[in-house]
Structure formats: structure tokens, C-alpha cells
Automatic annotation (TrEMBL):
Keyword vocabulary terms for this entry: Coiled coil, DNA-binding
A single GO molecular function term of this UniProt record: DNA binding
Coiled coil: 90-150
Protein name listed in UniProt: IS607 family transposase OrfB
Source organism, top-level taxon: Bacteria
Xref: InterPro entries: Cas12f1-like_TNB (IPR010095)
Length: 551
């Protein structure tokens, strides 16, 4: 099996003298000027776009191709990020519009009902509320139409420096305030630059070389200055005493591998990418390195003893431990209270939950299996929940962040991570395992996810038996599979099961029902109308159940 790899980024603060700080500022300004021009070139029609060679000649060859490669990757990442966020906004708006349309239909019916009853004051309040909802619906529909048109025209309106800072210019009137804003605008647009490395370059990067220092756990960086700035700052800039608080093992491994490569050409080097970023305190250095193995233990944890099935939800991680034969052993829940939290708090909460999940997997010595989904598919999965509390929770759902942290921690901890197709896991979990094992819908789905990794066939029971609130036993037969494929059959099964689940309170499959009935099952009248387990009432319930022809 191929060893999984992940690009990790580690950060350190640079302690610079005045000349070095000025050199990095000039470097960032030149680099970003090329970046803005290259982005403008890509926004033109394809017939008018310049290729790399033509563009570099037009710019006067400000620096080498390797530096320009960092510009290309930076612009490519910005465009991909914007397009992904736009797709996520399209999904979010689509979900909001559908929910609001349902609310409008309910309000209209309620308004007509109140008007017929002769309550003018209440009808007036409902009409005002209905008018506000209609205005909101039109606003969301306009946003959705604008985003769809922008996507069809393949536009990426990115504002370098930030739209928030750009809008501040409209409120300024005095000359001193405008000059101060121009300074902040220039700093926001020229505060970072990226240098991309390659495995065939010296020390992993031709323009920024990270090598060991005489001091323990410290490094020195030699930065190559562009040709246009060498008359002022020289050929290279040397920055010493670099220390990293996190990622020491990964960086040390990459530097050692590049050092050995200088003497042994058969060894493949480790590419290193460097991002220099300026903030209020000064310059930060972010080093990206590819990690292909665990940094916290020597051996990988695989699926020999079983797996941990994980179902990712907006408010928690539903986790089920399985043995090698697909049987559940125990289940856990790791909460994700993300609502009313800012970005930093959400990142900390997700990080703690993922850490607890990986601690549990490492303690049990088992690999992790998650669903292979993107944000759009996951959000559509929950769009049928129309109450306001769930809508707020879904708005704070950071599915991509959760998946990314699980993948990163799995490599760091040496725990193999596997992805499976999550189609109809919730349906099969509710139908087969929810009541049998006393699981929630999400834990039952996590059990199906874990079993699907091993390739177990999840066939629905031949006969479903449910008990309604009155205590009447009813049996239902799922549709025949015939010549349908799995997904066609599960789609048909879902259309059959959903209305049935609303009308009956199902316990489990046919065989499990027989097994439970032999031991101690009773139809206990509870406040919520759901059946319960009570050994004392077995004498009263047994005749009712045994009288059914199916039993």
C-alpha cells in the first residue's frame, strides 16, 4: 500500500536587523507587483493572454522562473479558493431559499386562516412578517443569480488588500486620513511573498536554502536576492538562529535528507516552500514540508484488529469501534459546539475533538474510516432539516476543516485513514442497526461506514416489523431487488422506507425481533408513544405479539 503524504506548514518568527527588514519589504513589493499583473493577465480572454515567457519579457525579467513559479502557485491557490467558496455559498443560498420558501407557504396558509377567523390585528402582524420574508427571499434570489452568472462567465473578482479596507476609503475626507489609508492599503497589498521549492534543487529550494546551524535545534536561511535588488542589498541575505516550536522532527528529517542528497545523488531530496509574511509584530516565516510517515511513533496502525468508523455531523463526531468481523464493540461521541464561536474558537474546538478521536484510535490500536464527501454533498444531506436551531448549527459547520485535521493528525500519529462511499449509510443504519444496538442514527451510520470498508454487503432484512403508538404490530416487506443495481435499489428503498418510518416506530429487522421477543419484550406505554423494554410486563405483551401471523 502506498504511504500517505501530507503537506504540513510550520511557523517561526524572524529576528531581523533594519537592512534585512528593508530588503524583505522591497522583495515583497516587487513580487506582488508581478503577482497583480499576472492575475490581470489571466482575467483576459484566452486568446489575449500572454504565456510565461512573453509575460516575463514584458515585465523586464524581474526575477528567475523559480521565483515566478511561486507567483503562479499563489494565484492558482487564490482562484481555486475563491471558486470553492463560491460553490459553498451557492449551496448555502440554495438551502436557505428552499427553507424560506417552506416558511412562506406556512405563513400564507396561517395568514388566510387567521383572516377567515376574523382576527384583523393578528392578520396584520402576519402580513408584515410575510412581507419581510418575501423581501429577504428576493434578496437571496438576486445573490444566487449573481453568483450563478459569475460562475458561468468564469470570473474571479479578487480584491488584493481586502474589500473591508477598500470600503474605508469612501468615508475619508481629509488629506491626512487619506495618506494614512494609502499607507495601510500599500502594506496590506505587499505583505507577503512565496518561494516554491523542488526535490531536485539544492537544499530543497534554489532561492531560499535552509541548512543546519551550529546551535542545537536551530537553522540558518540563505535567501537569494532578485537581480533588480542586488545593487542595493547584495546577492544573498543570511538569517541565523531560526528555531521552530512545532514540527521539529519533520523539518529535521527534510533538512537531513537534502543534506545527504548533496553527497549521494541517488537519494531524492525533500522540497521545501517558504512563505514570508509581515504583520504588526514583524516578519514570520512559514515552511511547508511533505510528511510521508508518522512523526510521533515508529510504526503505522493498520486495520489488522479492526477499524474506527466515524460519521461527521454539524454538532458532533459519531464514532463506533468495530472488530475485524464488522461487529460493534463500543461507541463514542465527540461534541462540536461550534455555534456562536469565532474562527479561532472553532478551530480550537475542532482540534480538541479530532485529537480526542485520534487518542481513542491510538489507544485501541485501530485505523480510522471516514466518509468520502465534500462540503456541498454534506450540506445537501442536511438541507431537509428545516427548524431554525439546526439551520444555525449547519451554518457553523466546518466540514472541510474537520476532514483536513483528521487527515493531518492521522499522518502525524501514524494511524491509517481510509475513505469510503457514504451513499445510503444513514438509511441502512436506521433500518438495520439503530434499534438493534441502541444506537442513534449517526452512530448507526458510523457502523455502516466501518463495515463498508471491509466490503460487507448491507442487505436490508426480508421483513420489517414495527409497532405504532397503540401497540399494534405491523409488518412491511421491502421492495424486491430484481435486476436493479445497488444504488438504484437503495434509492427505491429509501422512497419506500421514509414514509413508513414516520407512520410506524420500528424496532429492528425480522430476525432480531424474534430473538428479543423470546427473551423479554413488552409494549410499554410511554409519554412519547415509543415502545419500551420492561420484563415485568412480558406476560401481558406476549399474547399480542405471538398472535401475529408473521411470528
Amino acid at each position: 500500500m502506498d504511504t500517505p503524504t501530507k503537506t504540513l506548514t510550520f511557523e517561526t518568527r524572524l529576528d531581523l536587523i533594519h537592512e534585512q527588514d528593508a530588503a524583505l519589504c522591497q522583495y515583497a513589493e516587487l513580487w506582488n507587483q508581478v503577482k497583480f499583473r499576472w492575475f490581470a493577465n489571466l482575467q483576459k480572454p484566452k486568446a489575449q493572454q500572454l504565456n510565461r515567457t512573453q509575460f516575463m519579457h514584458e515585465m523586464g525579467m524581474p526575477f528567475s522562473y523559480r521565483v515566478f513559479q511561486g507567483v503562479q502557485q499563489s494565484i492558482k491557490g487564490l482562484i481555486q479558493s475563491y471558486q470553492t467558496n463560491r460553490n459553498n455559498r451557492l449551496v448555502t443560498l440554495d438551502v436557505k431559499i428552499k427553507q424560506l420558501e417552506k416558511t412562506l407557504n406556512k405563513l400564507k396558509k396561517r395568514c388566510d386562516h387567521v383572516a377567515k377567523k376574523g382576527c384583523p390585528q393578528q392578520a396584520k402582524q402576519l402580513r408584515n412578517r410575510l412581507r419581510q420574508k418575501e423581501v429577504k427571499l428576493r434578496r437571496w434570489q438576486q445573490k444566487l443569480s449573481a453568483l450563478v452568472a459569475e460562475k458561468q462567465e468564469n470570473k474571479t473578482p479578487i480584491c488584493f488588500g481586502g474589500r473591508k479596507l477598500l470600503k474605508e476609503r469612501q468615508a475619508l475626507e481629509t488629506g491626512s486620513a487619506i495618506e494614512g489609508w494609502k499607507q495601510r492599503w500599500h502594506e496590506a497589498r505587499h505583505r507577503e511573498f512565496l518561494l516554491v521549492g523542488s526535490h531536485d534543487e539544492s537544499w530543497g529550494c534554489q532561492n531560499a536554502q535552509l541548512s543546519p546551524s551550529e546551535q542545537e535545534d536551530a537553522y540558518q536561511l540563505k535567501l537569494l536576492v532578485p537581480h533588480q535588488l542586488r545593487a542595493t542589498f547584495g546577492t544573498t541575505i543570511h538569517i541565523d538562529h531560526l528555531q521552530f516550536k512545532h514540527g521539529k522532527a519533520a523539518i529535521a528529517q527534510a533538512v537531513w535528507q537534502n543534506q545527504v542528497k548533496k553527497h549521494d545523488k541517488s537519494i531524492k531530496g525533500q522540497p521545501l516552500s517558504f512563505r514570508f509574511k509581515r504583520d504588526k509584530k514583524g516578519w514570520r516565516l512559514l515552511v511547508s514540508v511533505e510528511v510521508a510517515g508518522p512523526t510521533e511513533q515508529a510504526e503505522w496502525i493498520d486495520d489488522d484488529q479492526g477499524v474506527i468508523g466515524v460519521d461527521v455531523n454539524p454538532d458532533h463526531l459519531a464514532v463506533v469501534e468495530l472488530d475485524r468481523n464488522g461487529n460493534p464493540l463500543q461507541h463514542r461521541t465527540f461534541d462540536l459546539p461550534l455555534h456562536y464561536k469565532n474562527d479561532a474558537q472553532r478551530a480550537a474546538i475542532i482540534g480538541d475533538a479530532v485529537r480526542d478521536l485520534m487518542d481513542f484510535a491510538a489507544q485501541q490500536g485501530k485505523a480510522v474510516v471516514i466518509e468520502k464527501l465534500d462540503f456541498q454533498q454534506k450540506k445537501r444531506q442536511y438541507q431537509k432539516q428545516d427548524h431554525s436551531q439546526y439551520a444555525r448549527m449547519l451554518n457553523a459547520f466546518a466540514y472541510g476543516k474537520i476532514k483536513d485535521l483528521i487527515e493531518t493528525q492521522s499522518i502525524k500519529r501514524g494511524i491509517h485513514l481510509y475513505h469510503v462511499n457514504p451513499a445510503y449509510t444513514s438509511l441502512l443504519g436506521r433500518m438495520k442497526y439503530r434499534d438493534r444496538h441502541g444506537f442513534s442514527d449517526h452512530h448507526a451510520a458510523a457502523l455502516v461506514i466501518g463495515r463498508r470498508y471491509y466490503g460487507f454487503k448491507e442487505k436490508p432484512p426480508k421483513q420489517l416489523i414495527g409497532i405504532n403508538a397503540k401497540g399494534t404490530v405491523k409488518t412491511e416487506h421491502p421492495p424486491v431487488r430484481m435486476a436493479l443495481g445497488d444504488y438504484q435499489y437503495y434509492n427505491k428503498l429509501q422512497r419506500w422506507y421514509q414514509p413508513l418510518e414516520k407512520s410506524l416506530d420500528f424496532l429492528s429487522g425480522w430476525r432480531h425481533f424474534r430473538r428479543v421477543n423470546r427473551v423479554s419484550y413488552s409494549v410499554e406505554a410511554r409519554l412519547d408513544g415509543r415502545p419500551g423494554m420492561n420484563p415485568d410486563l412480558i406476560q401481558e405483551s406476549t399474547p399480542l405479539l405471538s398472535a401475529h401471523p408473521a411470528l
